[in-house]
Design goal:
- The protein has 469 residues and is of the alpha+beta class.
- It has three domains: 2-165 and 400-468, no CATH class; 179-235, Pdz3 Domain (Roll), CATH 2.30.42; 238-340, PDZ domain (Pdz3 Domain).
- It is built from 14 helices and 19 strands.
- Strand 6 and strand 7 (201-202) form a beta hairpin.
- The relative contact order is 0.12.
Length: 469
Amino acid sequence: MNYVIFTIFFLIILWIIILYIVYKKKSNYISLYGPTIMLKTERGKKFIQDISKHRIWDYYGIFSIIFLIIGMVFTVGFLIWEAIIIITIPRVYTPSPLSILGIPGINPYIPVLYGIIALIIAVVLHEFSHGIESARNNVKIKSLGVLLLIIPVGAFVAIISLLIMIMIVNTSVPVSSGAVILSSSNTSLMPGDIILKIDNMSVNSTILNSINLNPGKNVSVLILHDGKRYYENVMAGIYINSVLKNSPAYISGMKPGMVLIKMDGYILNNITYFQKILYRFSPGERVNFTVYYNKNILNISLLLIDKYSFYEKYYPSYNNMEYKSQPFIGIVPLYMNITYTDPEYIYLLFSNPFSSGPFNGFLHIISLPFSGLEPLPSYLYPIFITPINPGYFWFTVNVFYWLFWINLMLGLTNLLPLIPLDGGYLFRDLFIFFYKDRKDYEAFADKISTVISFFILFLLIWQIYFLYF
């Protein structure tokens, strides 16, 4: 954590030094603009003035104002909601402080190449739109400028970028069957492998959840990997992927890598059946497990406890009222020690993200970088049949995705009623418009804007404080 904070302070100091050098240099082409640097040029003025003569920009301006007002209300509401729920987020889920900085390569979730491309396009489109609207409303343009800030604010072209990305992905098709492996602690199976058959039985993620194979038995698994099919011998069964400290499993000596064979005489063929058997018992009852570990069959006895009580004592931030009276062991069970899904599911995340509803779809599409699916890992390319070379295809998809993501985040930030952002000036101008009959309307608008700006700043600092201090 210390090195991260040091990096942030180093970048701030470096930026201050750059600002000081620009201030002393006093160039006609580069100057200070508050805490930002403005790069200026005379080129492009005539182009903007010619474009601005079209009447369509009048309608664009009206639409933009309406959109900004709606977006501002949504963004402030979302920020207040975040400030409330931030208190309940467990520290283990806290992202790196570097994620605060929207800088490609430094922010761990923004890839360097795609982030830089998206950022440049966002800023250019944003500044050009300002120039066109200024020329349309007879505001003299002295020069064209691009603002450079530690966290630049770009244009709002996310919707168009997302639609283009969806159109491109819809030119591909997913492989028709199988279960694609997302993560694996099994040395015989790799992320991106597609399991087509187990002992000559065709499978998908649903079948794997309820497959009826004897645990501890080696089975033949047909795998599709990088367009090639081959067989692997893999031990069937429910593996213990991890064990919670201080849980009954931990106390009894259960370890990651063990394969569950039986529970009080019930053969544990799959995850679904294991959960069904577990909930036949109650907290306080003792159960006996038969497990396979290091080529040996072991018997382990443990006392089930109340899940709610355990979490309340050791992990209160994770607790849930639904845990009350539930029997608890304290393991993460995974069939064959892998996580998996259907190729169709991943395909829908990109080709039709809103199939699960507008709100869920929005959350799914913006969270792809945090789940490791954007940029799409190359080992998952084979689950899509693409019309061109997969490398070129996914490069194009990734560019438009990050155009969407960067523009969305910068656009929502720019909507905040916080001066010097566009939302801050719009908020101030709205007050001037509605209270223009007052004698001191400008002073009144300035005071209200200042109060709101400090409120928004407080909400942002509040979140940072609860996350990292």
